[in-house]
Design goal:
Length: about 450
């Protein structure tokens, strides 16, 4: 089922010593499959016939090739114990040795190529049987070679392997390049096998020097054996090299990209105490935070950054009237980038109170939403009665100001945050109320107790 022709990749030998084989080409919807089989030579001393097989698989299906030998009458006999597997969209070229003593007389070698979608066969003839005439021809050839050897020198004609530079160690899954060189008459045959005898590659070399290229599979085991044989009427030269296989070192982890902040803006139309503060940013950072910090460095609010580039902070009531900075802290690995924007927090909406129902001459009163709180709790400080601009401060027992806020005329309340403490601590809320050229102070006690 295919025209009889020489195997293209292995047809450099002399026409009188290379019998014909077959080629076949099968067209499939997803790609063609082409194969060829030919007898390349016979080693009478070793009792082995060498066949060359080439399969070009341009399809998406993996192929399997199985070799048998058969007579015109009789059942096929297994010729080569290992199957040849051809991956999708790849080319496989290999030598298949047939031991004549084990197979017995046969007329043709048959390779069946199959997959889930196709099946076809390739054939090549058996080697010619030796007879008395062939023996006399061999004697005559040996005599001629002896004369040539005497004329040109045995050192030139005798086969020899000058170079087979395999490394002592290689990595699984990595390329392996082995320079070679040989002299004398003949062609060099090579095989690459695993320690347990599984053949990975084979070929026949006619060039006197060059480089063998292999890609080691990851399941090649712990050792490979490269064997080379150079045979001619003047003798045989052999060489072998062992290559230990090591696992490839783990790939180095890629370095983290330096964080970049390409844009950072506050998108809230106005920044008002008690309202949300929305910021937009563009960064390549994988993590980070947005902080709200006053001029003394105190942190008032924080929230993480997100992949969509939008973060929302809640501005505390106690930040009213203060100048602050919105800080974007971006991080990739151990690298950081920071960008900041200055803002001014406006007072929030007027808190309703009973002052409107109070007489204009009613005395001022300072009222706390709670007299005992936990760290981080909000405390609403309310001024009842008519008042001018006022400053509300939270001080400790030594008179140090911990936090403060403003209550402009027309507003009645401000929100303070309870400080962090390790034990129960007493603080004082002091309201300094201005009235014309005079000033009045109101004080309330605040106890902060850890949870």
């Amino acid at each position: 089922m295919g025209e009889r022709a020489l195997l293209p990749a292995l047809s450099k030998r002399r026409p009188q010593t290379l019998p014909y084989g077959t080629r076949a080409r099968v067209a499939m919807a997803q790609g063609d499959v082409e194969g060829g089989l030919a007898l390349t030579g016979v080693d009478r001393r070793a009792g082995t016939a060498i066949y060359a097989l080439r399969i070009a698989n341009q399809s998406a299906s993996p192929l399997r090739a199985h070799m048998t030998c058969a007579r015109s009458r009789g059942l096929p006999v297994l010729a080569y114990p290992l199957d040849v597997h051809v991956a999708p969209f790849s080319i496989a070229e290999t030598l298949l040795p047939v031991r004549l003593a084990e197979v017995g007389p046969y007329d043709r070698a048959i390779v069946k190529v199959s997959s889930a979608d196709i099946a076809f066969t390739l054939e090549a003839p058996a080697p010619p049987r030796a007879n008395a005439r062939n023996r006399w021809l061999k004697v005559l050839a040996a005599s001629i070679v002896a004369v040539l050897g005497a004329a040109f020198g045995a050192a030139v004609a005798t086969p020899r392997i000058d170079l087979l530079a395999a490394p002592a160690r290689a990595f699984a899954g990595a390329p392996l390049d082995i320079p070679y060189a040989f002299g004398g008459f003949g062609s060099m045959q090579y095989t690459l096998q695993t320690k347990d005898g599984r053949q990975l590659a084979a070929g026949l070399l006619t060039g006197r020097q060059g480089t063998l290229h292999f890609v080691l599979p990851r399941n090649a085991g712990s050792q490979l054996v490269l064997a080379a044989t150079l045979a001619s009427p003047l003798g045989t030269a052999q060489a072998s090299r062992r290559v230990l296989i090591a696992q490839a070192p783990p790939a180095a982890k890629p370095l983290a990209l330096a964080p970049r902040i390409e844009s950072f803006t506050v998108t809230s139309p106005s920044i008002v105490a008690g309202d949300p503060l929305v910021v937009h940013y563009t960064t390549n950072a994988k993590s980070g935070q947005v902080w709200l910090i006053d001029e003394t460095g105190r942190l008032w609010a924080s929230a993480p950054i997100f992949a969509d580039g939008v973060t929302t902070l809640k501005v505390p009531q106690g930040a009213a009237g203060q100048k602050m900075r919105v800080v974007l802290h971006a991080r990739n690995g151990a690298a950081d980038a920071v960008s900041s924007l200055g803002i001014t927090v406006q007072p929030g909406a007027v808190v309703a109170s009973s002052a409107a129902a109070t007489s204009p001459n009613a005395p001022l009163a300072l009222v706390l939403s709670a007299s005992s709180v936990a760290p981080g709790d909000d405390v609403i400080v309310t001024l009842k009665g008519n008042h001018g601009d006022s400053r509300v401060s939270l001080t400790d027992s030594a008179g140090n100001t911990v936090e403060q806020g403003d209550v402009p005329a027309g507003q009645d309340a401000v929100t303070l945050s309870a400080p962090s403490v390790k034990s129960e601590t007493t603080y004082y809320v002091v309201a300094s109320v201005s009235s014309g050229v005079s000033e009045q102070s109101l004080v309330q006690k605040l106890i902060v107790t850890p949870r």
